[in-house]
User: Which sequence fits this backbone?
């Protein structure tokens, strides 16, 4: 049976076909801004590949209830039942994107990750997963026995309130609170968050800067000559480290903390130089608790698709979707 799988983010949609097992082919990526709905993207993709899948699984960036979701950072409403009817599918899964990321973790190889501090993960211990991109995804995984992908913890932890880590981040958060009201982690630890940090730091320094996108700010930080860009990326990674440490404490994540998403792998040297790991461990009396927990940056660009393909394989074997 041919299955369609898709990673539906706020900015882009990636679609592929799974024919047998967990191997996919004909991967295509689309800008969501060019389409009115997910159905329009799927129509375009299927016309291009010339097949009619019998089942589908989609990882979506938003809170899913009863197979329905409205994307947090894109005005699309998605419903598994409607997709099944529209595309004549026997089976359709719509799940939170970071539940798919969490399930993909067990399929990663040592070449798919880069460790940033800590020691050896404890076998069978909980794992925390997070990833800044258009938004900030958060999830967890309780590993299972051999042949069992484990149980996923689906959360909207990216919308938890962001804590300051020093006087400068207090100033930044205060400025953002005046504009936004509630300052969640996602408002700062994301692509748009990088842009907000850049403007806020420039205002605090009394400097006028042009409005740049996150990718340009990151590029300026690497090239030099823009101290605000360098400060922005350093603060971004320290806030990311502190938030990752909060998750490690909350989950008891002795199995490791995995940082996915499209932003972090581009800037590994700056992440290491920024104080990310110090911020991860800087939890007062609990610093020793965190010291041995490894953090891994996920380098595999399609970890969500790994999780989706594995879930289809599990369902084919009669096992349920492993979400708590």
Assistant:
């Amino acid at each position: 049976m041919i299955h369609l799988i898709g990673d539906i983010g706020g900015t882009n949609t990636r679609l592929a076909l799974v024919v047998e097992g967990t191997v996919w082919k004909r991967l295509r990526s689309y800008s969501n801004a060019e389409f009115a709905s997910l159905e329009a993207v799927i129509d375009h993709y299927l016309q291009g590949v010339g097949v009619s899948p019998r089942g589908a699984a989609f990882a979506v960036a938003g809170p899913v209830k009863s197979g329905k979701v409205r994307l947090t950072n894109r005005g699309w409403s998605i419903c598994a039942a409607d997709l099944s009817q529209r595309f004549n599918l026997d089976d359709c899964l719509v799940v939170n994107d970071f539940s798919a990321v969490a399930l993909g973790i067990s399929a990663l190889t040592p070449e798919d990750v880069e460790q940033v501090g800590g020691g050896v993960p404890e076998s069978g211990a909980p794992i925390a997963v997070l990833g800044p991109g258009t938004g900030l995804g958060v999830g967890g995984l309780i590993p299972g026995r051999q042949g069992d992908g484990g149980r996923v913890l689906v959360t909207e932890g990216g919308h938890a309130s962001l804590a300051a880590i020093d006087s400068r981040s207090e100033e930044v958060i205060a400025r953002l609170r005046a504009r936004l009201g509630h300052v969640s982690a996602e408002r700062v630890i994301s692509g748009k968050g990088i842009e907000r940090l850049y403007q806020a730091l420039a205002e605090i320094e009394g400097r006028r800067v042009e409005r740049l996108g996150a990718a340009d700010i990151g590029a300026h930080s690497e090239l030099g000559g823009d101290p605000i860009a360098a400060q922005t990326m350093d603060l971004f990674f320290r806030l990311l480290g502190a938030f990752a440490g909060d998750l490690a404490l909350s989950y008891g994540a002795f199995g490791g903390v995995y940082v996915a998403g499209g932003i972090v792998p581009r800037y590994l040297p700056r992440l290491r130089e920024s104080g990310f790991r110090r911020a991860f461990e800087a939890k007062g009396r609990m610093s020793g608790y965190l010291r041995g927990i490894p953090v891994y940056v996920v380098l595999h660009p399609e970890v969500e698709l790994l999780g989706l393909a594995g879930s289809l394989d599990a369902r084919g074997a009669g096992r349920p979707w492993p979400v708590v």
In short: Residues 110-299 form a domain with the Hexokinase; domain 1 fold (CATH 3.40.367.20). The chain has two domains: 3-102+302-316, 110-299. The two ends are 27 Å apart (CA to CA). The mean pLDDT is 90.
